[in-house]
Amino acid sequence: MHVSVSSSRRSLILGTIMLATFMVSIESTIVATAMPRVVGQLGGFNYYSWVFSAFLLAQSATTPIYGKLSDMFGRKPVLVVGIVLFLAGSLLCGFGWSMTSLIVFRVLQGLGAGAIYPVAMTIIGDLYKLEERGRAQGMIAIVWAVSAVVGPLAGGVIVDNFAWAWIFWINLPLGVCAIIGFAILLREAVEHRQVKIDYAGALLFSIAIISLLVLLTETNATGGVLVGLAALFVVSGALFIFREKRAAAPIISLELWTRRVIVTSNAATLLAGMALIGLTTVLPIYVQGVLGRSPIVAGMTLTALVVGWPLAVMMSGRLFRTFGIHRTVRTGSVAFPVGAMVLLFLTPHSEPAVAAMGSFLMGFGMGLVSITGIVLVQESVEWSMRGSATAAIIFSRSLGSTLGAAALGAILNVGITHYGSGELATRLRDLLNHPTGLADLAHNPNVRMVLFHALNWSFWGVVAVAVLAVVSAWLIPVSRKDTGDVPVKHAAEAASGN
């Protein structure tokens, strides 16, 4: 099984991949901006968070499964099926008549999104040599950065001037063009053989991951519900492992997850995802609530992150050739915790530019950790396992984001309880739950200082996780042949070390 494509078509295929990626990446930011208006029309505010959670749960749980299917049946059919599911969900979301129906259709969207990004990144690994891959994946990183900036603006324009359904229907022409592009440009030679799909393994894996993610994100659940979710995760996880050890063609290769290069790369990516979501969660609260600046200023501090990330990915190819892949990640990834440590020097009177500097350094370090992990994992396996390996590292990033949001949120709450007396802590939580609460903190200096000290605890949490991410990056195995003067020639050998 292999991909057959002339070099002249690669740029067109990359453009099609960027289009498909843009469709998924901009959807989340458009929906986030428009949802208050949607809830106002549909009602059911209690289900507000599930509009986002349903999508992310379906996407995260199916990502490794689609990676395996792309190894079994080829990249193109799996990717096209994912786009079709995503478009079907988008179309139906626009016709949603209640919050319940909207959540169901968002699940369908998520089932499609689970295929698009990992399989698209796998195709890049198939088409581009190691020394060229940084530029190609840098273009994908730019797509995510542009989506982060354009999405909120587009969502606001749509809900102010058109029916809210267009926040979903805007995907339809993009998806149709992507399907046509892949159908015409991407050609695969697939060996025709009988393949038995491990449906039981896929089902058990989905149940285990969804129960874990709900357990981590459902903060309002009762103790009995949480215990039930934990029990469901343990039982389904154990049954999944038991099944996969005995399945002739397991949907998730346990052997793949035991390889040192994959374990360490996934660990570094997971921890980096935890730190990064921590930054994006607490930094806007600090800028608005402690510094008293506008949401626009808070957004600008995070914009520095989405500048640093694609910049690092774009530079990675040249850095790999000059210094070697491992020297690059080991040295460059240090920017990640250094940027996090900048947060520790923030005060109630700091300039937002200081926060932006830390954000930029974290984005740059994360870019190097991310691209290096994907490259090493892809180079360490043969074509028939590349989809599974790529999906595994993308899944690790998603899981890290979920874990990070839960952990940093818990630290912030503990800090509020510790630094605020009962009355101050209650007052602060009431303000944080109010739409204009952060702006009102300027008139409550005592409550504002409680928030500052609690956020400082969260910043320490971000630093700790960022340091662990770099330690994991340093543990990625290195070949003795991976030297500065021959980094590309021996990169595959370095990546396959155990």
TrEMBL record:
Pfam families: MFS_1
Residue ranges that the Swiss-Prot or TrEMBL entry lists as coiled coil: none
CDD domains xref list: MFS_Azr1_MDR_like (cd17502)
Membrane topology label: Multi-pass membrane protein
Entry GO CC: plasma membrane
Keyword annotations of the record: Cell membrane, Membrane, Transmembrane, Transmembrane helix, Transport
Locations listed in the record: Cell membrane
Membrane-spanning segments: 12-35, 78-97, 103-128, 140-159, 165-185, 197-217, 223-242, 263-287, 293-316, 328-347, 353-377, 389-412, 457-476
Record-level Gene Ontology MF annotations: transmembrane transporter activity
Organism superkingdom: Bacteria
Chief location: membrane
Record SUPFAM superfamilies: MFS general substrate transporter (SSF103473)
Major facilitator superfamily (MFS) profile domain: residues covered: 13-481
Annotated protein name in UniProt: MFS-type drug efflux transporter P55
Organism of this sequence: Paraburkholderia solisilvae
Gene that produces this protein: mdtD_1
